[in-house]
Amino acid sequence: MDEVPWKFVDSVVEMFKWETLHGLAQRVRHPLWKPVVHLHHRNRATYRVEVRVTNQGVQHLFTRVTPLDSGIRFSSCRIEESKVAFQTIREKGRFARIVELNDISTNEFPPFAWREINPLSEVDTVKLQQTISTLIDRVSGSLDLVFGSTDSANMIVTSLFKKAYLQKIRIPYCGQVAYEFLEDQINNSPFLIQVDITGLHWPKSSIDQLVNFCLKGRPGKHVAAFATNTDLVIDSSTIRNLFDLWKTSGKLNFQLYCSGGIANQEAWQALQNEGQLATRKHPKSPERLFQHKTEKSVAMLSNSYCQMQCYPCNCDRFKECLLKKEYPEFHKF
Q1: 286 near 186, Cβ under 8 Å?
Q2: Which of 205, 245, 290, 302 has the smallest count of CB within 10 Å of its CB?
Q3: pLDDT tens track for 94-152
Q4: Looking at the whole model, is its pTM more than 0.70?
Q5: Nearest alpha-carbon partner for 47 in 1, 90, 78, 11
Q6: Which of 326, 302, 318 is nearest to 221 (CA)?
């Protein structure tokens, strides 16, 4: 351990999200790791960026934030004028991170702070978006464009495409680039755990992308795939295929939901009837429970919150076990 080069330690610590870095700073004792951890902990600057497209140009609101894991997204927030924010970012250099990028262009009543922010021209907006794309924290960064317009969403997605990778994304369809962005994030973002595609006009093959994402869920990595307020539907055969894959390995770890519901209701109902009735969480729309024959794992089928959920037991390998947390009554092995 003492012979590990400083550059390697620095490159590892640089990838830690703030919550990990903050916790480690309180406990690390090793003479090589301690100064590196404290260097990053002392200098890390995290931001939330909100974008608003107006008739006069594009506004950007930077908020300095301190993220937390304990159910609170931020423990403290401080709005900074763009020039101040970028001065800090230049000073912090590689220690600066953007952990949230939100489009609120359709918000008719933005916060008072927007009145002080000058809109940027198209040329300056492109330059700024390019800078933002390099600062996205791929370990904990989130993108939410659901309150934006089609044009503003297209602008942001185009600026991030193949340049930034995220942990969570929620995007409307804003042209072919949205589909390609979704596909690229699912295939290449190592820390992606949640995808929500919203609104109309998504290609039918978008469901295939969500299914591919579900297959990336495994013990220790729970993924969630949602299609919200869309005109998409999931065919019952798609659920059956996922169910058969779960029966084969017992390792899948995901949630899948489509607001458009399930096509071929007869086959869907027949599959549900194979499971054990579970009414604790949704008495009016009970779930159907399936326990794996050889693995410590359960699958849930439902007409309510998620059409399909899979939870393997993680107790022997990880600190948190979602199966025990979400369905303690079925955590009996």
Answers
A1: no
A2: 205
A3: 888 899 999 998 876 666 677 778 888 888 888 888 888 989 999 999 999 999 999 99
A4: yes
A5: 78
A6: 318
